[in-house]
Design brief:
about 35% helix, Aminopeptidase, 8 strands, alpha+beta, about 180 residues, Ribosomal_N-acetyltransferase
Length: about 180
C-alpha cells in the first residue's frame, strides 16, 4: 500500500479495493452536501460503484496518468484527493479533493493538497499544478488561495448540476512559485 505521511494525524493512502465499503459509506453519508458541487455522488449508488472507481484509479496509476488517495484522519477515512491526470509532456497535473462534513474545519484538505503539490513538483518532476473549483464553493476556493495559487480565469456556466449552471474557477501554480506564499 502506498501512503504519504502528512503529519501525526493525517495520511494519504492510495485507494485499494479493500477501501470500497468505507469510501461508499462516506460518499453516501455526504451525498447531498457533495452533490451540490460535484457530479460523482449521483453516480455512486452502491459499494460496487466505489469499487469500480478504485479499480479505474489503480489502472490510471499503473499507466502513470493520475491516482486518487484517501485522506485519513487518525486512521479514519475523511475524504479524498487525487491527480485527475498527469501530463508528463506538458509537465502539469490537476488536483481534485473533497472532505466529509464531520471532518471540516481541521485544515485536512489544505494539508493534503499541500502534500500533493509537493509530490507533483518534487517526485513527479512536474512544472505546473492546476485546481478547478465551482465558483460558488467558497470553502473549496479557499484551498488554492491559501496555498498561493493564482486565479487564472473563470469558465462561465461550465457545469450543469442540480438544475443550474455553475462557473468553474481555474487556479494555477508554477513550480518556481511554490513556497513563495
Amino acid at each position: 500500500m502506498f501512503t504519504m505521511h502528512v503529519d501525526d494525524d493525517v495520511e494519504l493512502s492510495i485507494f485499494e479495493p479493500r477501501h470500497a465499503e468505507s469510501l461508499f459509506q462516506l460518499v453516501d453519508k455526504n451525498r447531498d452536501r457533495l452533490g451540490v458541487w460535484l457530479s460523482f455522488p449521483e453516480k455512486t449508488r452502491e459499494k460496487a460503484d466505489s469499487l469500480a472507481f478504485i479499480r479505474k484509479s489503480l489502472t490510471r496509476m499503473a499507466d502513470g496518468n493520475g491516482f486518487w488517495a484517501g485522506i485519513l484522519y487518525k486512521g479514519e477515512l475523511a475524504g479524498s484527493t487525487g491527480f485527475l491526470y498527469i501530463d508528463q509532456e506538458a509537465g502539469r497535473t490537476e488536483i481534485g479533493y473533497w472532505i466529509g462534513a464531520d471532518f471540516t474545519g481541521r485544515g485536512l484538505v489544505t494539508k493534503a493538497v499541500r502534500k500533493m503539490v509537493d509530490y507533483a513538483f518534487f517526485e513527479l518532476g512536474l512544472r505546473k499544478v492546476n485546481i478547478q473549483t465551482s465558483g460558488g464553493n467558497g470553502k473549496s476556493r479557499a484551498v488554492p488561495e491559501r496555498l498561493g495559487f493564482t486565479k487564472e480565469g473563470v469558465l462561465r456556466e461550465y457545469e450543469y448540476l442540480n438544475g443550474s449552471h455553475h462557473d468553474r474557477i481555474v487556479y494555477g501554480l508554477l513550480k518556481e512559485e511554490w513556497g513563495e506564499f
